[in-house]
Specification:
302 residues; five-stranded mixed beta sheet; alpha/beta; globular; four-stranded mixed beta sheet; 22% strand; 10 helices
Amino acid sequence: MERNSTCDLSVVLTAFDEGDEVRSTIDSIRHSSKNSPEIHLVDDGSTDGCCSGFAEQDVDVIKHSSRVGVAASRIEAIERTRGAVVAIMDAHQRLELGCLDQCAEVALKHRAIVSPDIRGFDETMTLHGAYFTFDSQRQVFSAQWKKLTPHSSVASISSLKAPLYLIPREVYPKVKWSGSLRGWGGSEASISLKAFFAGVKLLHVCGPLALHKFKKKFHYSVDWPEVWRNHAIVARICFEPRTWFEYWLPEVFESRLSETAMADIESDEVLEDHREFQKIKVRPDRHFWTRLIFSDVPAAVR
């Protein structure tokens, strides 16, 4: 497949049994941008043929024999991108004209991760980015949509909640996913938490719009032990050992993790991810509570 010699923008899509949504999403990408972005499509074990035929349409298709999840799929695809900015999308989205181009410009200007306005296919409310939270009931990192229109066309946010978002290539190494994440859960939380600790800006651009087909239920199995495993891996990588062993492990995750999950969390891969991330952190762990979720610092880590 021939490609242009240069490319300012790359788009990464992941798909699992998305039917005709994949084609509609790719058409939307091409019609919305003037910059002819390169498109990388990960067929994450689909059984419905939703990703068939795109290799002949100047789309880089990566095919998995079985589903591994969005984080691992995105890692693999990003390694093949060449753009100065990488746009992360789901395979069931539509883009307003100029959405990618406007967000990419802001991302490069501010060296920031950028998200546009988001709206559901059948909804009227526009969502303006998100703020980071910790779901104390489910015991996972989470986020809540911001529904009030911001006063500025470009505003700071504290979390990603769902695609679309754009990451400058020079920023990606600081916030990249761990290859140990599997299935569903923890993908956006991982980038948001890493961005906070590494001092990477998260910005929302008010105006350009991405439509998202929010689904009432998953069309694949979601296993809560797998979700807790993913979130525990995120915590193990992002926090200092004392915070992990004196708070996150005993107070939050230990009772929810299997022996296999515990072995995964203490694997060489995760520990290496932890060591590398600790080198680039610019915020102490206590700021997670005092400046991100605005809560009391647990006694165990004061």
